[in-house]
Amino acid sequence: MLRHVISPQDLTVKELEDLINLAKDMYSHPSNYSEKCKGKKIATLFYEPSTRTRLSFEAAMLNLGGSVLGFSSADSSSAAKGESVADTIRVISSYADIAAMRHPKEGAPQVAAMHSSIPVINAGDGGHNHPTQTLTDLFTISQLKGRLNNLTIGCCGDLKFGRTVHSLITAMSRYAGVRFVLISPDELRIPNYLRTEILDAKGIEYKEVNKLEEVLPTLDILYMTRVQRERFFNEEDYIRLKDSFILDKDKMSLASPDMLVMHPLPRVNEISVEVDEDPRAVYFKQAELGVYIRMALIYTLLKEAGKIEG
Ligand code: CP
User: Fold this and answer.
1) Atom of ligand 1 nearest to the CA of 265
2) Which pLDDT value is given to residue 310?
3) pLDDT digit string (tens) for 254-286?
4) Catalytic positions, please?
5) Where are the alpha helices (DSSP H) in 64-211?
6) Which CATH number fits domain 8-130+290-304: 3.90.1150.10, 2.160.20.10, 3.40.190.290, 3.40.50.1370?
7) Residue of 46, 47, 50, 284 with the most ligand 1 atoms within 8 Å of its CB, for mutation
8) From the CB of 230, is ligand 1 less than 6 Å away?
């Protein structure tokens, strides 16, 4: 069966659990999976910059014994000559077995999926969704906290344009006892659809604040995000808001001894480098774990598409 992953809601809670369990096994026993995708190819179609997502997809496929092709910017593809996403994916479907696409336009991976004969994975579309970052986040929380329920999660920074936060809230709202503390300047609060369609619709407990210090002691997880220059229409607004929150050692002294500090990365100023040595800072571990959950996703989608043996 041909399946695409465009939003976190494309995966059921049971499927998320299966992917996390598979990623755990891949992490513990990588050699058992080193030839599972032999002869298969992933196309990484990146119309926007990336370090972790593109390279972890590529590392994941190489770890599974497969191969990689693709482009890392729109300028180096025929998008620069005006080719549509629909035409591109029709062609790539005859070159590769699965594709991961990042695009600055919201909905572009969905359009690709509609014209594709291979599985398409959304690797981040504009300010909309980033489902494989969310898989990485859930795998990290599961590994380091031992549970995905009964957690108070603080999301801090650019909650308006931050696609990682949008996907994380959507996915974590499906677990019992999860509460959100949404920490941002007034201008960068979450989009209204998340409030109405997810948080209010599901009766999830949440509050919106603009001071980090006062809520830090209450958090199990602090999910920091970057204020993203590339999403602002106006440079003055970016400069005014970019350093709204800076996590440093002094602020960390207010947090619980077992709070996790997560960040999808890249960071700019929002976490001081002095925090990196704190055992609660897990953002580099989070980036490492992203390879294994992407291995699990590639393997599962290729298996479901009948392209590899189970
Ligand atoms: N977390 C994340 O999406 O990082 P990149 O932009 O480097 O892929």
Assistant:
1) 1
2) 74
3) 999 999 999 999 999 999 999 999 999 999 999
4) 52-53, 81, 102, 130
5) 85-92, 108-114, 131-145, 163-172, 192-193
6) 3.40.50.1370
7) 50
8) no
Which atom of ligand 1 is nearest the CA belonging to 54? 8
Instruction: Please tell me the distance between residue 203's alpha carbon and the centre of ligand 1 in angstroms.
Output: 31
List, by residue range, all CATH 3.40.50.1370 domains of the chain. Answer: 8-130+290-304, 132-286
| Ligand 1 contacts CB of residue 133 (under 6 A) | yes
The three-state secondary structure class of 204 is coil
Cα 181 to chain centroid, rounded? 19
Domain 132-286 sits in CATH at: 3.40.50.1370
Per the document, the length of the chain is: 310
DSSP string, 249-306: HHHHTTS-TTPEEE--S--SSSB-GGGTTSTTB-HHHHHHHHHHHHHHHHHHHHHHTT
